[in-house]
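Justification of computing resources. Each target in the renewal requires a structure prediction run like the one illustrated here; the chain below, 563 residues long, is used simply to show the kind of job we budget for.
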Amino acid sequence: MDIAKQIIDQRINKILEDNQEIFTANDNERNRSKAFLVLGVAAYLDIDLTEAVQYLTDGGNDGGFDAAYIVEAQDSQLNVVLFQSKYSRKLDKDSNFPANAVEKAVNTIKCVFDPSTHIELNVQSRKKVEEIRSFILDGAIPYVTFVMLNNGLAWNQEGQNHINNAFAGQCQVRFEHFSHSDIMRYINREQVINTQISLSGKAIQENFNYKRVLLGRVSVMEVYKLMEEFGDSLLEKNIRRYLGKNVVNDGITETLLDTDKRQNFFFFNNGATMICKKFSFNALQEQNWIVKTDDLQIINGGQTCKTIHQTVKENSNLDFSQTYLLVRLYEVEDTENPGIIQDIIYATNSQNPVDFRDLKSNDECQRILEIGAHDLGYVYKRKRDNALNINVIPSTVAAEAVFAVWRECPHLAKYRRNEFFDKYYSLIFDNLNAAQMVIAVLIFRYCDNNRKKESKLDGIKEHRLYSQYFMAYMIGKQILKGAGITLQEITHINFYEIKNYFDQNKELMYSRAEQAMVDILKDYFNNESLSEIDGRTMAATFRRFDIIERYLKNKTWWEANME
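Resulting structure tokens:
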């Protein structure tokens, strides 16, 4: 029996045992499948389990996808990752991902990303689809990765035929198989990689400021072998998350597949930067060094390496033997020069927008929040973690909540996650204490849970699916007004008093905020019947700042309608 399958099954048991409030279905197998989905989404996106839960859409009429991750990128690009999950309790057997499920996924893409088509959906799936379509109607170009998640084998040729027939030559769509073995890499991501790299031709090695530097070139086949063996474990210190196809990655693939351009790939690409604690080679050898490394990590160029791996794997018939990549290898020991590794990572990645969460995790303000939250009875996760518990607060969730509730940016909080720890880091975390952070998260989670409840009230049912960030912001303002304090006055001293005020009044405050939003939208659209406003328009409305400035920040409006 596959040991990895057993470990994943044990992990699912633990997730179910610790989080009964999340997995509430009477059907145990359904709960197990949902737990596997959460674990798989977290592993693929390299996020916390707590964060992964909010992307689920599974259920009847889910439209052929069980989870959806949507994030804005540069140049009007929209990255969308869809998941379909199949979990088998027959751990002693390997089965392919069903071909009919692949066919359904193909049809899902055709429907979801064409705003003119109609598709029957459940509440959560409809919300995701309307969000996607609202971006498309605003001119965004979607790049779609459909992840087929299971604890078995990839699809067979029949399934591949469905993909080829629909999307052959289509650069915006990519299918990927993600299995229990891939999830294991997520669970064991602290793996130390001791391996060797075969350089091609002559290389340069120098000692500089008590550090060692090596510059050389490697065949892309060598990169492929490294990624095939170690996967994302090589990228633990790389702060840029790989989300499949995008404009840059497509350019890399296009060059690799072009017979004329392939041989000049070395000159077209910035290469990869790697660090290790120690490297060694035969210095008596003039060229083609075999470099042995201890604790190897790719800190820049991870997207290039992932794209090379994917392209070579999908085009095994092509000859990549004369295609090379520039490699910079630094021998760095953090104990001798504390912080040097983080400084190198920051410097080599600062030219492009990246996910800085891990980079910022050791900041003093993050450590203070961790200590403060612990003293209040909560666990603040500065770094990524696979714990799933209501009292666990990942830093990404904290940033999302604080940005919406206290920093008056509910219109940005949802789709700017990649910029929380970069562009908006100071705005979110400066002068933030643990009490303020926890209250914001409690408000945000309450509103997000209410979003999942279907309303039959006219007006409210039209906006509830999209307005949870605005509801959180409005509740935060009501708490400050009701308690007669400013945000700066929320501290550990009055934390439980504020929390109790929220617990006792949250239903009333939420109801008041929802009804006020109905009145806002009627005035905003100059239409008394919100049922006439389609979901795509409604979703787009909550991405803009108009409502914030015209109503919610307007003191006269607030006093007349919310007090």
